[in-house]
Amino acid sequence: MPSCRLMRKNKLSGMTNGATARLGWALSCPLSLYVHIPFCVRKCPYCAFYSITASPEDMDKYLDALGQELQLWTSLSGDKLHAQTLYIGGGTPTVLSAKQWEKLILILERYVDFLPFLEASVEANPGSLRADHIRLWRSWKITRVSLGAQSLDEGELNWLRRPHNAYDVADSLAALVASGQDVSVDLLFGLPGQTIQSWHRTIKDCLRFGIRHLSIYELTLEENTPWGENPPKGLTASYPLYRFAQWYLPKRGFTHYEIASFSLPGHWCRHNIAYWQGENFLGIGASAWGYLDGYRYGNVKDIKIYVKKISEGKLAIADEELLPTEQAARESAVLALRTMWGVSGRFFRRRWGWKAYRDFCDTWRGLPEDCKITCHGRYALSPKGFRVANSLWEEFL
Ligand code: SF4
């Protein structure tokens, strides 16, 4: 493989033959596929993801470009891609009409061989989710829907300036669960006026619909967002709310399997687990990221530039690097420690070598005892470790 410097200088089209062959090999093996749909009804004031509002015509052009990007990747592998998991995220994938979804499905079928036992997830937002979407997903391969509810409290949804209300959330949850999909809900905590009681009510109400997965995120104020520049007042301390979820959800049968994720046993998100375990994933679309055998790339964010580059027959890669082994090992440890399975010493040694393993163990020894669990050659964070994880990552990176 070429050096990191060379990789930065030469975008994929300029790679050495050896590097291209190695990528071709990674692309011909089973992988996880991420498809980014960067459109939203409107921009939420705290959102740092790249997403825009767009006309149906621009969305159609974007879908065509997704097909062309897949074609470019398959030309490197010489065959269809083999996906073991698929994740269609955004943005808001449900701003696409049912007709546009049919088009997207045809594109995916053309370039991707979906393996048996596929997990196929899609993100949906209440308010733009329609019965047509659910019917189409049921009749195709979608097995899992992640609903961006954020709250079930009308006051909190208003404050967040979400384009949906609590009734939209309830209607969406009822329809999705009735369709037989594995349903996950995203919730935000740390909002003004949020109390343990209101947080409890929101979680409990979600569970009453029969969901099997819950992701909880602290509201963070990122740079270059309206609220990052001009922070709202009165945010609630998030630590007690997170701690409550850690206490309450296991009582309801949910396993805390990743820092932000809880699920009924066996209903974890396999696509995300593949990412946390450092497996290969291909991201397509504007601002999507991918990782293939140590090669990490990110596509351009701007949709117009993305569509233009792709239509010229070039991949739209803006950043790329070949991770040096030590950095790749450290990053893989941090990703694995996000999950309850943590780092397997034997697997880590085999993959990254003794030197990287010794460095990992040195760092591990320095972590506070109540933040870690070491058992039979496996290293994982304790519930307290999950709560203070951000401060622990600094030790590794
Ligand atoms: S709906 Fe989601 S992706 Fe779209 S602007 Fe709001 S937070 Fe960002």
UniProtKB/TrEMBL annotation:
UniProt domain Radical SAM core: residue ranges: 25-252
GO terms, biological process: porphyrin-containing compound biosynthetic process
Record keyword S-adenosyl-L-methionine present: yes
Cross-referenced InterPro entries: Aldolase_TIM (IPR013785), Coproporphyrinogen-III_oxidase (IPR034505), Elp3/MiaA/NifB-like_rSAM (IPR006638), HemW-like (IPR004559), rSAM (IPR007197), rSAM_sf (IPR058240)
Molecular function GO terms recorded: 4 iron, 4 sulfur cluster binding; coproporphyrinogen oxidase activity; metal ion binding
Compartments reported by the entry: Cytoplasm
Cellular component terms per the entry's GO annotation: cytoplasm
Protein keywords: 4Fe-4S, Chaperone, Cytoplasm, Heme, Iron, Iron-sulfur, Metal-binding, S-adenosyl-L-methionine
Assigned protein family: Belongs to the anaerobic coproporphyrinogen-III oxidase family. HemW subfamily.
Function of the molecule: Probably acts as a heme chaperone, transferring heme to an unknown acceptor. Binds one molecule of heme per monomer, possibly covalently. Binds 1 [4Fe-4S] cluster. The cluster is coordinated with 3 cysteines and an exchangeable S-adenosyl-L-methionine.
Listed name of the protein: Heme chaperone HemW
UniProt organism field: Acetomicrobium mobile (strain ATCC BAA-54 / DSM 13181 / JCM 12221 / NGA) (Anaerobaculum mobile)
